[in-house]
Amino acid sequence: MDLFSNLMLGVDTALDPTTLLYCLIGVTLGTLIGVLPGIGALATISLLLPITYHIAPAPALVMLAGVWYGAQYGGSIASILLNLPGTPSSAVVCLDGYPMTKQGRAGVALFVTTIASFVGSMIGIFILVMFTPAIAALALRFGPAEYFAIMLLGLVAASTVAAGPPVKGLAMVVLGLLLGTVGTDVGSGVARFHFGFPQLRDGITLVALAMGLFGIAEVVGSVNRKLGAEVRERITFRSMLPTRTDVRQSSMPMLRGSAVGSFIGALPGAGVAISAFMAYAVEKRIARDPSRFGKGAIEGITGPEAANNAAAQTAFVPTLALGIPGSATMGLMLGALIIHGIQPGPLFISNQPELFWGLVVSFGVGNILLVILNLPLIGMWVALLRVPYKLLYPAIIIFICIGVYSVRNNVFDIQLVAVIGILGYILVTFGFSAAPLLLGFVLGPLMEETLRRTLLLSRGDPTVFIERPISAGFLAVTAALLIWSAYSSYRMQRREKLARESGLKAPE
Amino acid sequence: MLRKIICGIAMAGVSGIALVGATAASADTLRIVVPFSPGGAQDTLARWYAQHLEERTDMSVVVDNRPGAGGSLAADEVAQADPDGWTILQASGGAITIAPHLRELPYDPQNDFVQIAMIADTPMTLAVRADSPFETLDDVIEAAREQPGEYAFASTGHTSVSHLTGTLLAEAADIELLHVPYQGAAPGLSDLLGGIVPLMVTSAASIDPMVAAGEARVLAVFSPIELPNLEGVPTVEEVLGTDGLNSPVWTGYLAPAGTPQERIDELSAAIQEICELPETRDRYMSLGAAQTCGDAAALAETMAVDFERWGEIIQAAGIEPE
Question: Measured by CB atoms within 10 angstroms of the end CB, which terminus of chain A is less buried, N or C?
């Protein structure tokens, strides 16, 4: 069958009134739980999964998928307005989104993130439609060596995500790597740093860490701040519209972010959060003036937003084309199929064309619905800032508790998020940025696992990293990046020195 | 106004989630604790039984997913529950017959539970990529004899059933294979299909769609299973010609020790009846499970054999307890 008739088949399925309704329910719910800190797609989908026993497979899958990508839209809203990431993958949006709110540009920030999300999703869907089998085949060629190389590149590229002194950023990356070692070691089965708590055998959940470091820390930190000192922005439609400069500054980052996100998302196991961090790093690296980042640079939100939405779409590539889910949430999607007796696997697309193409078309429909839903709601979200803290913050704490509990149905995680929150508050107080910690935490375990697996398979011979072309390519880029940043910091120092010397001669 | 809307949404969210929690607590509700997240084969099994138990008895049934620590969080939860017959564990190997050989557990798998019924076997298989030079299990054994330790097998985790089953094969055939653990079946399958690792010991359920698509082949199964795609695949026992190599991956229901015998019998009868339904067989096919039904005694025997077997394998392979 050619592409056109496939898409027509998909349109038939996706525009069926029932399916359309479930799509709307899915994306609306997705946006809502995305906004709520702590409660994420994973928990929501696992709560909804039992309900899908009673729905036909197509609307069920469409709805669950809607929750998943809808959450990517909602996730950035709280990041921008309150410095609280709704989902871990939108933590990076806090870095420049919150400063924009402080400058009274919350409406603009929300507007451009919606557009960036839409652009990212659409590019992701385009890639899903055009290249699914090819990407799936490519993803299989990524062995542990390639994963390690790409994660190393990510870590080196993104180690500068923090504003402020590099030493502090580096210290946080290392702390993140260390926290990532908590839990059962994949290689040996030994539980590390669990301090006798059986719950720590599976490690610290990303949600607990992100919500503790950003959410709880922000709430605790604001206790001493003067109440009502926040921005009282007048919300007019005008105030939401980006200026011409904003548009110019965000169009390329959206495309670059979409490219990064589409690529990372399609790799099973890499994840949406990593794509957002990498997109941020790319923007900061190639920016003419990197010092603007962390102070409300619009590229710092459009790049990562486009990336995490594109990644949310392409994450379906290995899941649907191979039956190999890249994350726990994608595993749940397959669960929804298994519930209906449909076997996911490499034959899924050819055996269930109406389901696959219906789902793909519903992504397009769902994203359009999300834009329609989100743009008029921006005003309401900004109004959230007017809710007094005494009402807002206790509610946030409750949502965080429900959210972390719902990930593993475990009271221990609530206690854990409280402890991490205190740690987060201390770090913020001393001027350490939490974003690099999260980055280290996300990348560290993956890097360790893939490094050790590569060396296990090569019997300890490290030359495999250079012998395999894809891995060698990523390592070369990493090396180039290191040399380039060493050179540019040397040049900067020299220029500063020269400036100081000339300054001594002619004080001004 | 806006504030009211926002508060309203927030309240609706909280009460919705509270409602889900509340149903679990009411009386006359059987709680099936499942040590896995929703969506997997084990969860689907539990919901199959929950649905049918509700239809056949006047109980309401909830499935309580308690993943974590290799199933021992769920097992501990049930071990400590009131033995009133309203909380049961959907148990499988890991936390009950493997973990006690490896580490101290907060519960005693031998004495803290009583068996109710056995419901399924989700057998392990030895799989290769479709274009692998290995045509039979004998080819693998021969190649591994020539180059000990050269061939690697992927497992779904260190000391998982998949790892120990692979080790069982190596011990029985007296060969040396390199063990490469993954976190679950998905990443291992990705490397098997990508040609990174030549062999994998994984469940029939996970490999079946790959076989159907012509991406992988199964050389042997570790206990008999009827699946259209695995027809004619010999068991390891048949290939090696030794008895006692079948290692079913059992699933059964356990109750806390001290549960009244009457209640156990009642549950056992209802569960076995559901297990033997013809539609259960169809459902199991799509889950890669064999309809291995049995009463409390049958489950107790399977568990005892399993416990013994993994103890020996762990010792023979020199896997260190923590």
Answer: C
B256-268: average pLDDT: 95
| Strand, helix or coil for residue A183 | strand
Residues B218 and B266 in one domain: no
Range of the domain at B159: 2-9+123-240
Which of B17, B20, B180, B202 to mutate to test binding with chain A, by most A CBs within 10 Å of its CB?
B17
Task: Note whether B72 contacts A198, CB cutoff 8 Å.
Answer: yes
Tokens for B225, please give them: 């299973």
Q: How many domains does chain B have?
A: 2
Using H for helix, E for strand and C for coil, what is the string for chain B? CHHHHHHHHHHHHHHHHHHHHHHCCCCCEEEEEECCCCCCHHHHHHHHHHHHHHHHCCCEEEEEECCCHHHHHHHHHHHCCCCCCCEEEEEEHHHHHHHHHCCCCCCCCCCCEEEEEEEEECCEEEEEECCCCCCCHHHHHHHHHHCCCCCEEEECCCCCHHHHHHHHHHHHHCCCCEEEECCCHHHHHHHHHCCCCCEEEEEHHHHHHHHHCCCEEEEEECCCCCCHHHCCCCEHHHHHCCCCCCCCCEEEEEEECCCCHHHHHHHHHHHHHHHCCHHHHHHHHHHCCECCCECHHHHHHHHHHHHHHHHHHHHHCCCCCC
Judge if B310 and B256 occupy the same domain: yes
What CA–CA distance (Å, rounded) separates B90 from B87?
10
Whether residues B35 and B94 share a domain: the answer is yes
Cα distance between residue B146 and residue A378, in whole Å: 68
Q: Note the helical H segments in A103-243.
A: 106-140, 144-158, 166-180, 206-210, 217-223, 237-240
Q: Which of B38, B196, B213 sits opposite A345 (nearest CB)?
A: B213
pLDDT (0 to 100) of residue B15: 45
Size of interface A-B (CB pairs under 8 A): 165
Per-residue pLDDT reduced to its tens digit, A159-200: 766 667 778 888 898 999 999 999 888 888 788 998 888 888
Residue A139: predicted pLDDT: 84
Q: With bands split at pLDDT 50, 70 and 90, how would you rate the model's confidence at A234? A: low
Is A32–B9 a contact, with Cβ atoms under 8 angstroms apart? yes
Cβ A184 vs Cβ A204: under 8 Å: no
Q: CB B51 to CB A323 under 8 A?
A: no
What was the pLDDT predicted at A235?
A: 59
Q: Quick one: B260 and B112 in the same domain?
A: yes
Average confidence (pLDDT) over B129-138? 95
- Position with higher pLDDT, B38 vs B124: B124
Q: What is the predicted ipTM?
A: 0.84
Q: In this structure, are B306 and B282 located in the same domain? A: yes
Which of B185, B216, B240 is at the close of a domain? B240
> Given this model, what pLDDT does residue B14 score?
47
Minimal-distance CA residue of chain B relative to A29: B13
What is the Cα–Cα distance from B79 to B54, expressed in whole angstroms?
Answer: 24
**Is the same domain home to B194 and B301?**
no
Decide if pLDDT at B22 tops 60: no
- Position B51 in a domain: yes
pLDDT band for position A226 (cuts 50, 70, 90): low
Residue B127 and residue B117 share a domain: no
Decide which of B240, B265, B293 is a domain's last residue: B240
C-alpha angle B70/B75/B78, rounded to 5°? 155
Q: Which residues of B touch A345 (CB under 8 A)?
A: 208-210, 212-213
Question: Is B177 found in the same domain as B284?
Answer: no
Cβ–Cβ gap B66/A386 under 8 Å: no
Ranking A2-6, A157-161, A211-215, B32-36 by mean pLDDT, the lowest is: A157-161
Single pTM value for the model: 0.86
Residue B108 CB partners (closer than 8 Å, separation 6+):
B79
Is residue B322 a part of any domain in this protein? no
